[in-house]
Amino acid sequence: xxxxxxxxxxxFMNEKFILTSLCYxxxxxxxxxxxxxxxxxxxxYDMYEEIKKGNITGIVPYCGFLFGNVAILIGAFVGPDxxxxxxxxVYYVFYxxxxxxxxIFSGYIAEKAILYKFNNVDEIVRDRNLGTAAVHLGxxxxxxxxxxxxxxxxxxxxxxxxxxxxxxxxxxxxxMVFLILFSxxxxxxxxxxxxxxxxxxxxxxxxxxxxxxxxxGIILMRASIGDVGTWQHGMITYFADLSAIVLLLxxxxxxxxxxxxxxxxxxxxxxxxxxxxxFGEAVVIVGFALLLFFMVDFVNII
Length: 302
Hints:
With 302 residues, this protein is mainly alpha-helical. It has 14 helices and no strands. The protein has one domain.
């Protein structure tokens, strides 16, 4: 009798869990549909028309936008549960919508603050410049990772909803400022004019740059994720991670040039529009950033 009762309880809990999961999946699909509608309103060209024409650059930025939004939905979903399912769902939708709106703003940053020397729409639509499209993809992916960390819920649960909202906006703003700053530094350090090469349809440069941006996004996600505690401790931890970027990412370039492909001048090959070299450099830098993400814990070091 008792065994049957326990079995019935477990069955009910499993059914409740399944219904809850289905509800989140349904709401997530609605949010992704809304994000696509908002994206189409924000861009200055008809994405579907470009796809019909076989223009791959018309879909590449949206792929980054979609990936970034999925990361945001995951970030908004994880974290401590509250007392009621309805409360959790409301805050999930709120932070997901906040993240989607910030993603739209990230596209504006890509066009006006990072790739500011040329008309991005003309490059994507008229010239079918895959390098420009790749950079947009990289910025959307990096932004999605940063926003995902900002809306995970730990800070909200620990310090209250207003603190969580403010910290999300502050860390997103800092992340975008650093992405812009990094793009300037990267342009200075490369032996070629970054924006000029991208404007002149150098796909390898665009792919390589996109990889570096995603790597920065991964590290900034590591710096922003979780409960930051006090603002003072949060800022110390955040800038410790940024210091790691400054010190370690140039080491990856040396590792790439001197050990992995020592018989090839990667920078020169990328400048010569060698897509294989650009893609290889992007993968190595992203891979190293992932190692930092999972293996280095500055919160416990400080």
